[in-house]
Amino acid sequence: MNIQCLNSKHAELVSFISKLELNNVIICAIVLQETWNFKYPELISIPGFQNIQSKLRTFSNGGGVGIFIKNGISFKQIPMPELYTENFFENITLELTSKNYRCTISSIYRSPSQIRNITQADQYNQFFVKLDELLSTLNNYDVPSFIFLDANIDLSTLNSNTQANEYADIIVGNGFIQNITRSTRIQGKSYSLIDHILTNDISASHETGIIISDVSDHFFTFIDINKKTNKVETKPVKRRSFTEQNINMFKSYLRDLSWADVTNENNVDASFNNFWRDFNMLFELCFPLCTFKFNKNIHKKKDFMTNGLITSRNLKNVLHKLALKQPTLSNINRYKSYRNMYNSLVRAMKKLYYEDSLQKNAKNPKKTWDILKELSTGKKSSQKIDKLTINGNSTTDNQEMANEFNNFFSSIGNKISNSVLPTVKKAESYLYEDPNLREFELNPINQAQIIDIVKNMESKASSDSDGLSTNIIKKIIFEISIPWSIYLVLVHQMVIFRKQ
């Protein structure tokens, strides 16, 4: 909250916190703006909390940000000296660790006062650039982030205020959401929503709200964090490198093979096993399965992120850093223009990706619901069944519930089968009888036919359990068409198919 001088409001704040704790409200952190300057942190302590962590003004009065952390919670300050600027962007960020949960929390204050020799537009621009940098930086941490702001930007005027629109665009463009939706400051008949809580932990369900208090002319805002969900640690990327160079090397090795073990073998299984042995050996040699550490500048977390978008994101970051190091009007406008274009492209690609996914799975209800769930929550989640009714009796015993599910799914097939009415009519009687059909002939296949069949296959990058995709098969079909045609002739002559 905006405390408006911690020294003078200290006793009221301690009393307010004490009342909440007496009502069994567990408070992990108290995030403040406009603390103003103070010399002795130990004189403004709060029982049950560690000494305040703060960033105060050195060249003027007012402003300042601080955070109280509850005893028993470990924390460390994340230094961001290039962001902190008095009046424009006053901030402090901590990383908290408690048992199995980690997160970052930030306090930000933007002064609404007019600064000498700087236009109001330039003040907003500098704030927006630094906010964008902070949100982008926090997204690099593999933990949820929670940001508490007194931005002095009224989001209740979103439909009519240019600065409010740009502010909201930066928040959403970085994958954060704003959680406070009611006015946080009321004076007479005027009201405004200028105190905000942002988070990028959109997969979890958090409780947020406002507490009306007269400690300050700003109301308290709060968020009750759902600790059951946390960001998943990014796993290493395992993949094969199908570069043009590797594919050409693979084709060269295949052309050099004599395939004698395949073409001279009269046993169907042995012939195929010999083919697969040589083929797989060269495949693993040219396309080994390698483990790569995830790099957000190269790899993609979301399927709708194309290589072009990743390149554009990297350029956006370069322009962002330039606008921070050299905050000229030209650099700032160039960055803002490119950022807005990039955000529009991301939204368009995301929309196109999910529309295409829904269209492809229109006849698959389960997959359709999975896509809708992913789209609405950002992450797949599962819910635990705490209670089950069995034969009219409710139970919470995990073993009983597991046994009931096992009994249901193991017997459902027989129950459905038994529910089908018996019939004396044979299934063969439904087949069409052609008096002129006397035999079924399987003609031998040649090399040209194999090539034509493969070339007409749909091109797909998705691979099977052996790492093969139709894309790769189509590129090497000329090199393997000879042994395959001979093998299929053997199958036709022996009228024997592989056992496995």
How is this structure best described in words?
The protein is α+β, with helices and mostly antiparallel strands. The protein has four domains: 6-224, Endonuclease/exonuclease/phosphatase (Deoxyribonuclease I, Chain A, 4-Layer Sandwich), CATH 3.60.10.10; 237-294 and 444-500, no CATH class; 307-377, no CATH class; 383-410, no CATH class. 41% of the residues lie in helices and 16% in strands. It has twelve helices and 17 strands. The protein has helices spanning 6-22, 120-138, 162-173, 244-256, 260-263, 268-286, 307-325, 329-360, 365-377, 398-419, 447-455, 470-494; strands spanning 29-33, 53-55, 65-69, 74-77, 90-98, 101-109, 145-150, 177-178, 185-187, 190-192, 195-199, 207-211, 220-224, 237-240, 289-292, 388-390, 393-395. The strands form six sheets. The protein has a six-stranded mixed β-sheet, covered by helices on one side. β16 (388-390) and β17 (393-395) form a beta hairpin. The longest helix is centred in the C-terminal third of the chain and has 32 residues, at 329-360.
Main sheet: which strands, in order across?
Answer: 4-5-6-7-11-8
What's the CATH first level of the largest domain? Alpha Beta
CATH topology of the largest domain: Deoxyribonuclease I, Chain A
Helix content: 40-55%
Low-confidence stretches: none
Kindly report the name of the CATH homologous superfamily of the largest domain. Endonuclease/exonuclease/phosphatase
Structural class: alpha+beta
